[in-house]
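Problem statement: downstream parser choked on a complex file, so we are re-checking the raw output for the fe (ii) ion run. The parser issue turned out to be on our end (a line-ending mismatch), but while we're here, posting the original submission so the record is complete.
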Amino acid sequence: MQFVDASARNVLICLVDANPNYRASVANALTSFYQIAEFSEQGTALEGIAFNPPAAVILDENVLPRGGLPLLREICCVPDLDRVPIICTATHDRSIFLADAMALGVRTTLVKPFRRSVLLQALSAEINGKIERSWVRIEPIQRAALKRTLTAFNSIADLIDDGKPLPYDHVREACEPVVNAVCNGNYKDMLNGVRDHDNYTYVHSLRVSIFLTIFGHSIGIRGQDLLTLASGGLVHDVGKMSVPHHILNTPNRLTDEEMAIMRGHVTSTAKFLRGSSGLPRGAAIIAEQHHEKLDGTGYPLGLKGKELNELARMATIIDVFGALTDRRAYKEAMEPEQALHVMTQLKNQLDQHLLATFRKVLLDVAKDLQ
Ligand SMILES: [Fe+2]
Ligand SMILES: [Fe+2]
């Protein structure tokens, strides 16, 4: 049984623009999603792109010394590099550069300034295009679940940037097909559909959402409460959108300072969700307490034993299981049996009674995943 694809790759994006302020703002927008290599000049950019071919190039009209077009022509002439997706950017929609780029076969062009969600969606469509297109072949409810949750997830990036609250309606509507699919017992296409998708935070959040819903359904939770679990899972880590890629994706031990930034995602998520209109308390608890442990060694509050209600205990179990079985740039996915074995060793941290229930449900789910 293969639960999650074990092939690992780091997702590199090359950003070519002579304007350092623009490069900094784009790099910041993509911080938690991709590894970024920045270039301002044609020669070094071509060398960098050829040396370490990226998953995509974001190429502006403004490149030293003669604009973006000569570099685009060069990339198109190098065998192998001609398959790297390129997103061209300019300050006007009537830019000659964009027209020339399209004539050379570039599919995606963006006019500055563009929203963070627009850039994320454009990159996702280019890098994960084959995967997202394959969703047309899956069962309609599960297809709707994937499309709606991905759109909702990307739009949260804009809300965070703008300091605007999250309307719970958006999350609930995106999660309704997730719940329907689980209630109908048809959720495997959703899990398989994101197996190779590169938007790690989205994939992890969706898997936590699906597993929490499956778990909840198996212990008799129904209706709006099930929707609360699905929603809580989808938004539980949105604060990670502000954590830099190198901290989020390092195989190395984090320094104390990096660890503090990483752990800060819980507080950022909680702060963001606090302003949300209509978010059920249960969904907020999932986000706020999914790193708390029974023995008080968790964070951010170090809650202990009875201070953690059943929802928080479920969230912690699902989050740990999700993290162990996720495919990451730096590690292979762990098989579910192995992950569950590791989790049974964490006797003082995880609720072993709930874990035993989850084990039975999960091994059933895992049976015929690709
Ligand atoms: Fe988290
Ligand atoms: Fe998580």
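For whoever reads this later: Confidence is low (pLDDT under 50) at residues 1-9.
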